C-alpha cells in the first residue's frame, strides 16, 4: 500500500502463502509509533477467520457447522504485501443490487424484473470472480453464495433439486404453503418427483437448489463451479475443517452435473447413445469432483469420475492424466496404511510381551 496510511483496526487483504486473506491491522510501524506506510516497511496484522461471512441469509453450499479456528497470533508482514479491500466490499449492499434482490424475492413474472434479477446475479458473481482471481477464496465464496441464493427462488411450477435417498433428484413445485411454518424448517412445499412422478411434501430448507428459469448463460452452473473451486482452496487453508469443505465441493459439482443433465433434456436434442458427449460444465464438474473425492480418499468415486472423463471424446488426455494421478495416490495411500498397520501391530506385540514379562517377575503371595 504505497502512499497510503494504515489505520489500526481497519480490514485489509494480505498474502498468506500463495493465497490472499483478509486481516485486521493490529499495529503499524516500530517503537516510534510511525504509522505512515511511506516511512515504515512492516505492519502487524491479525488474520480474519477463514470461514466465509454470509452476505444474506443462509449458505447453500458452504458447510453449516465447523470447528472454530484457534485464535491467530499477530504476524508481521511487509507493507508491500498488504492491499486495500475492493470498494464494493465496504459498501454492501449497493442501491442497485438491493433493489434487484428485492425484485427477485418478490416472485414477479415481469420480463423487466427477470432481466434485473439476472443482472443482479451476474454482478454478484463478477465480484466473486474478482476476489477468486486475486486468490481470496473466502471472500469470493460470500459473493458466489449471494449470487446463488438470489438465483434460487422457489415458485409454483418451477423446478427444484432435492435429495432422495442420498441422490439429487429434480422435482416440480406444485404448491408452497407458508401457513405450515413451524419455526424450525420454514415453509412446506408439495412437489412431484420427475423421475418417478411420486408426490412428496418437503420443507423449504430441504431444497438443495431451486433451478433458475431462463438461465441462458448457465449462470447457476458457473457459480457452482467457482464455489467448488473455492471449497477446494479453503480445504487447503483450514486443516481442521478440510473434510467438510471437500464434501461441500462434492455437493457443488454434483449439483452442476444434475443441472447440466436437466438442461440437456429440456433441449430435447437427439443424441447418439454410442458416444459419450458431456457438456463443457459437466466435464469441469467431473474434474473438480474427482479432485475432491481423491482428497477425501474416496477412491471408488474418484476413479469413476476420471473414467467417465476418459470415455468422453472431448477431453480424453486430461481424463487419462487425472486417472493416472488418482491411481498413483491410491497406491501411495495403501502403502502408507499398510506401514501404519504394521507399526501398530509391533506396538501391540511389544506392549503384550512387556505385560507378560511383568506378570512373570511379579511375586505372588
Automatic annotation (TrEMBL):
Region Disordered, annotated ranges: 90-119
Compositionally biased tracts (Low complexity): 94-104
Full protein name: Uncharacterized protein
Taxonomic placement: Eukaryota, Sar, Stramenopiles, Ochrophyta, Bacillariophyta
Amino acid at each position: 500500500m504505497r502512499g497510503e496510511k494504515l489505520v489500526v483496526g481497519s480490514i485489509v487483504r494480505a498474502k498468506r502463502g500463495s493465497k490472499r486473506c483478509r486481516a485486521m491491522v493490529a499495529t503499524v510501524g516500530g517503537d516510534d509509533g510511525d504509522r505512515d506506510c511511506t516511512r515504515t516497511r512492516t505492519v502487524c496484522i491479525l488474520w480474519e477467520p477463514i470461514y466465509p461471512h454470509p452476505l444474506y441469509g443462509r449458505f447453500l453450499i458452504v458447510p453449516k457447522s465447523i470447528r472454530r479456528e484457534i485464535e491467530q497470533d499477530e504476524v508481521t508482514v511487509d507493507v508491500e504485501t498488504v492491499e486495500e479491500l475492493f470498494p464494493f466490499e465496504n459498501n454492501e449492499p449497493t442501491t442497485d443490487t438491493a433493489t434487484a434482490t428485492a425484485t427477485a424475492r418478490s416472485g414477479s413474472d415481469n420480463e423487466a424484473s427477470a432481466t434485473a434479477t439476472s443482472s443482479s446475479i451476474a454482478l454478484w458473481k463478477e465480484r466473486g470472480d474478482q476476489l477468486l482471481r486475486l486468490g481470496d477464496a473466502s471472500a469470493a465464496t460470500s459473493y458466489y453464495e449471494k449470487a446463488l441464493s438470489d438465483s434460487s427462488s422457489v415458485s409454483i411450477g418451477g423446478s427444484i433439486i432435492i435429495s432422495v435417498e442420498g441422490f439429487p433428484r429434480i422435482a416440480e413445485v406444485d404448491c408452497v404453503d407458508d401457513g405450515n411454518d413451524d419455526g424450525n424448517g420454514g415453509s412446506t412445499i408439495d412437489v412431484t418427483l420427475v423421475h418417478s412422478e411420486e408426490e412428496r411434501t418437503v420443507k423449504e430448507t430441504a431444497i438443495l437448489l431451486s433451478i433458475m428459469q431462463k438461465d441462458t448463460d448457465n449462470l447457476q452452473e458457473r457459480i457452482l463451479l467457482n464455489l467448488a473451486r473455492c471449497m477446494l482452496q479453503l480445504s487447503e487453508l483450514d486443516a481442521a475443517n478440510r473434510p467438510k469443505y471437500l464434501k461441500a465441493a462434492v455437493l457443488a459439482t454434483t449439483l452442476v452435473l444434475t443441472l447440466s443433465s436437466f438442461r440437456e433434456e429440456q433441449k430435447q436434442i437427439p443424441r447418439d447413445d454410442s458416444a459419450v458427449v458431456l457438456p463443457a460444465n459437466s466435464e469441469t464438474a467431473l474434474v473438480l469432483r474427482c479432485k475432491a473425492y481423491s482428497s477425501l480418499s474416496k477412491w471408488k468415486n474418484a476413479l469413476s469420475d476420471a473414467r467417465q472423463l476418459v470415455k468422453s471424446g472431448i477431453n480424453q488426455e486430461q481424463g487419462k492424466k487425472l486417472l493416472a494421478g488418482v491411481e498413483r495416490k491410491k497406491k501411495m495411500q495403501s502403502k502408507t496404511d499398510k506401514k501404519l498397520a504394521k507399526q501398530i501391530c509391533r506396538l501391540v506385540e511389544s506392549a503384550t510381551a512387556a505385560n507378560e514379562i511383568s506378570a512373570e517377575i511379579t511375586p505372588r503371595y
